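Hi U.,

Before I forget, here's the chain from the pilot set. I'm dumping it here mostly so it's searchable later in email.
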Amino acid sequence: MYLVGAGPGDPGLLTARALELIATADVVLYDRLIPASALTGARADAELIYVGKEGGGPSMPQGQIDQALLDHARAGRTVVRLKGGDPFVFGRGGEEAEALRGAGIAVEIVPGVTAGVAAPAYAGIPVTHREAASAVAFITGHEDPAKPESSLDWSALASFPGTLVVYMGVRQLGAIAERLLASGRASDEPAAVIERGTLSDQRVVTGTLETIAARAAAEAVRAPAIAVLGSVVALRERLQWFERLPLAGLTVAVTRARAQASALAEALRSLGAAVVEAPAIRIVPIDGPAPELERYDLVCLTSPNGVRLLFERLASAGRDARALAGRRVAAIGPGTAAALRGHGVIADIVPERFVAEGLVEALLDVPVAHALIARATEARDVLPEALRARGASVDVLALYETVAEPLSESERAAARAANYVTFTSSSTVRFFFDAVGPAPLEGARLVSIGPVTSGALRERGLEPDVEASRHDIDGLLEALVADAATSRS
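Structure:
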């Protein structure tokens, strides 16, 4: 049995141990405020049970959660109780651990990054500072309602010589400020409220102890939020960084296949964007024998998927990269070349333009007698036709096909509301708009990886707002960032 902290919201703050346990669990009981992508690494056959609580909303009683943990653990299952933040910091993890240990069940505690430290850090507020605060106190703004009176010593907190960090205190912020002021804490002390800290739509409202409740109310700040009281808040003016990321506050939809989406999504999040994963396509391998590569003097790979599946076929025949020895290897772009390097193969030819026409140009001075092109079934015939026109014998090896991936209603709605929708192939265009329908998106800007993908958009009567000048993922990211900067200027 594992009590696991999932961190404050940014999926990059999940610990390695948390990811490891999620990947091996039979059952995951998870809270409302865990990172949206925290469960993507769970096994396909794992049972995922939502047990989240929301202030003022429907919630599963704690006793029922405890009983569910006991039932699954007693059944011999590997159970992960996944809690937002840190399970032992205002997360009722201690109570759950007591219930489990009292029933004779062993528990491992996996700490998580707590919001009281992470949210201020993402707002540019250090909770301690040698010159501003040598101590920090974490307090809850939502004590057990069954208590006859508050157990907090407001007089002591008012005189506390350091930073006060208040969890779950949005609705009680006015009362908290009044108690501190009445107990003698300085009215002009800097204060901040951080809504949805560490997430791309993080908001920070600042003021003083005297004004912060009114400021937060005027800005309609809602939970989850953390309040920070103390002189360290003044450091935000110099130290804020998250809101200055190039894609901060923007939502970007990623339409490529789920298995390939993670790298692009991670890069977008590192730039500050909220990512909507709306995988419109799925890669389906085609069964077949390993090709006899010795027959060819040129082997062309047109995608990282093609590289992966070619080597899977070779491995099934007990062969490896040595099968390519003595052959020229051409990759359509840097992504495909990188996939080859992962198998110990350095591409001999990588064109300057990462499209089939670019590869045709790069091969003009290369003698070719017998060529193998490993690709998707639906790929364009530009390359094989050009090589045959030169007199070469060309075999096309279809390693996979691209099919539609059904999108849920929530995925379609989220993609429609995004600021940008990215397309990395003509198939993502075709299947995405088949899924969402012909109605225009709600103000989203369309980002194309290159001219072929842009052509697919135009066939739909849509003009790309952004086209990458370098037709790979890095080029797409550069173009998107440049467009966002122009739009904001």
